[in-house]
């Protein structure tokens, strides 16, 4: 199957999940996660109006940004090191993976320098897995409040990477907990904070995530096929 045929399959499942949840399809952004994949595969999707792409690494995002049309939305979904922030501050439409005040401060400083406003999500390690980045659910509100005081940075919502499970139902509670957390934080009405974005759900569990309120799902393997990390 071609990349676009894969995309259509995923799109169909997104629509069905929205229908089951009584949601509008427009409420969910499908991010095609193109990490480790060549530009040619991204180009297969462009004639079909696909504009949202996700990358894990700063270097890969900037390289693709340079050669592809400038009207695409690049999402940085991988762990971000502070010394790399300056390279993507004016290229990523959304940084999904902010998990410390120090990183947020660097983003704020670089955004001020470039005279842009950075949109970010706070990454929450809902399942508290040792191998994952992100703050705990308990720490999230305090971090959001601290970030809200910084210039040129806006917290658009929360992101989580759920555990890798065989049965996606096992992650339903993880997604539900993130949604509840975002509702609680939204009620605090911090400056420069909206909780409109819930970035949760990947190839294995995005349908359940949509049923639980995801507004962005990050699908890589389901669209581009398996990855070869040996390269």
UniProtKB/TrEMBL annotation:
Gene3D superfamilies: Alanine racemase. SUPFAM superfamilies: PLP-binding barrel. InterPro entries: Ala_racemase_N, PLP-binding_barrel, PyrdxlP_homeostasis. Pfam families: Ala_racemase_N (PF01168). Keywords: Pyridoxal phosphate. It comes from the Bacteria. CDD domains: PLPDE_III_YBL036c_like (cd00635). The modification N6-(pyridoxal phosphate)lysine is found at residue 35. Residues 24-227 form the Alanine racemase N-terminal domain. PANTHER family: PROLINE SYNTHETASE CO-TRANSCRIBED BACTERIAL HOMOLOG PROTEIN (PTHR10146), PYRIDOXAL PHOSPHATE HOMEOSTASIS PROTEIN (PTHR10146:SF14). Pyridoxal 5'-phosphate (PLP)-binding protein, which is involved in PLP homeostasis. Belongs to the pyridoxal phosphate-binding protein YggS/PROSC family. This is Pyridoxal phosphate homeostasis protein.
